[in-house]
Amino acid sequence: MTELEELVLSPGERAQGALVDGVIFSMDWTGEDHPGQLAAFVAGRVRAFEMEPTDVDTGVVHDAAEADPTLRRGDVPIRQLDHLSGVLARLGCAIVVWETGNDTYELLVALTGGRELTGLTYQDFPVRPWGSEPEEILVSLDSP
User: In this structure, are residues 65 and 79 in contact, taking their beta carbons and an 8 Å threshold?
Assistant: First the structure.
């Protein structure tokens, strides 16, 4: 079992042979398909770790975004993830991003236990805490 599995799967999920793929939330860079999906995912993962997901809500972010005239496409997901990262830190958890190299946020919730999450990978791609600097940046454009 890898360190990542120990961080993102509950003991019950590990005992049942659950896979990391089953606890990844994918969100397009422009945001959720339906408001509340990200918060519901995060709350569900917090419950999987047998904690109460207090304040795991992104409604405040959506409300603030509606009143912001400088808001650009793609800003809301970043604000949501920033907000939820703060909420999760108080619970001993973190949002981590699986860096697959595409424009989709591949997200997991990790139980940190106060540990710094560094050097994590999944299927040979880096996994890093939301808000941390990526180790490598590779930009590739393919224009027809």
Answer: yes
